[in-house]
C-alpha cells in the first residue's frame, strides 16, 4: 500500500490541496464489483487476488472470493438477476460517463457526495513539500 | 468490437473494467490497464499479461488470446 499512497500523495503535491482538486486524485476508470457482496474487487496483485469469473446459465458473474461464489451458487435464483453498476452501464441502463453516472444516475451533487476529509491539506504533505525546498 | 474485461494490475488496490478492442494486442491492453490505474500505480516499462492462469505472448491480439466479454486478465511486472 505504501507505493499506492505515495503515488496518490504525489498527485496531491502536484495539484495542491483544496476541494476543487479532489477529482485530480480520483480514478475515472470503473472499478469491478463482486456480483454477490457488491463490494469493489480489490487487490490487483495475483498472489493476493481471489476474484473468479463463473458462468451460470450462459451469463458471466465475477466474485471477489470463493465464499461469495459459494453463497451465490447455493441460491443462484436469489442473486442471478441483479445487475451491478458495471452491468447496468454495459447494458445502457446507466451512463458510462462518470460525471453523468454520479449526478444523473445516482442523483448526487457536490454537496452530497463523499469528500476527502482534509481536501488534500495534510500536514505531512506540507512537511514533505517544505523539506523538498 | 469493444470487449469489456476485468483487469487486475499488480500493485493496485482495485480490479478495473477495461474496454478492449478485438484487434488490440495484449501489450496495448496492458497499457490501457496501466493508464487506468495510473493514479495509484506508477507505470512500468516491462509488464506481462496473464489470461486463464497462462502467461501470454504480448504481441497477440485480444481476439487471438480468446478473451471474451467479462473475462479477467492480469498484468504483472515483467
Give the H and E element order of chain A.
Answer: HEEHHHHH
Order of helices and strands of chain B: EEHEEE
Q: Write down the overall geometry of chain A.
A: globular
**Structural class, judged by helices and strands of chain B?**
mainly beta
Query: How much strand content do the residues of chain A show?
Result: 5-15%
First-to-last CA distance of chain B: 28 Å
Helical fraction of chain B equals 10-25%
Radius of gyration of chain B: 11 Å
In oligomeric terms, what are we looking at?
heterodimer
Major sheet summary line of chain A? 2 strands, antiparallel
> With helices defined by DSSP (H or I, 4 residues minimum), what is the helix count of chain A?
6
What layout of secondary structure does this protein have?
The complex is a heterodimer of chains A (133) and B (78).
Chain A: H1 2-15, E1 52-56, E2 59-63, H2 66-74, H3 76-79, H4 85-90, H5 98-105, H6 123-132
Antiparallel strand pairs in A: 1-2
Chain B: E1 2-9, E2 15-21, H1 26-36, E3 47-51, E4 54-55, E5 72-77
Parallel strand pairs in B: 1-5
Antiparallel strand pairs in B: 1-2, 3-4, 3-5
Amino acid at each position: 500500500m505504501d507505493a499506492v499512497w505515495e503515488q496518490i500523495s504525489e498527485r496531491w503535491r502536484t495539484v495542491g490541496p483544496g476541494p476543487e482538486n479532489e477529482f485530480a486524485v480520483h480514478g475515472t476508470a470503473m472499478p469491478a464489483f463482486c456480483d454477490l457482496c457488491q463490494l469493489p474487487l480489490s487487490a490487483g496483485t495475483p498472489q493476493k487476488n481471489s476474484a473468479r469469473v463463473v458462468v451460470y446459465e450462459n451469463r458471466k458473474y465475477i466474485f471477489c472470493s470463493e465464499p461469495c461464489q459459494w453463497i451465490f451458487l447455493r441460491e443462484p435464483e436469489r442473486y442471478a438477476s441483479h445487475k451491478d453498476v458495471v452491468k447496468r452501464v454495459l447494458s445502457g441502463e446507466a451512463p458510462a460517463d462518470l460525471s453523468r453516472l454520479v449526478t444523473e444516475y445516482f442523483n448526487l451533487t457536490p454537496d452530497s457526495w463523499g469528500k476527502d476529509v482534509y481536501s488534500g491539506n495534510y500536514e505531512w504533505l506540507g512537511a514533505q513539500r517544505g523539506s523538498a525546498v | 468490437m469493444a470487449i469489456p474485461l476485468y483487469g487486475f494490475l499488480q500493485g493496485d488496490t482495485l480490479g478495473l473494467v477495461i474496454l478492449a478492442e478485438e484487434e488490440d494486442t495484449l501489450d496495448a491492453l496492458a497499457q490501457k490497464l496501466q493508464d487506468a490505474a495510473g493514479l495509484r500505480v506508477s507505470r512500468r516499462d516491462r509488464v506481462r499479461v496473464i489470461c486463464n492462469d497462462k502467461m501470454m505472448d504480448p504481441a497477440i491480439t485480444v481476439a487471438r488470446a480468446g478473451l471474451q466479454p467479462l473475462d479477467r486478465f492480469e498484468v504483472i511486472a515483467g
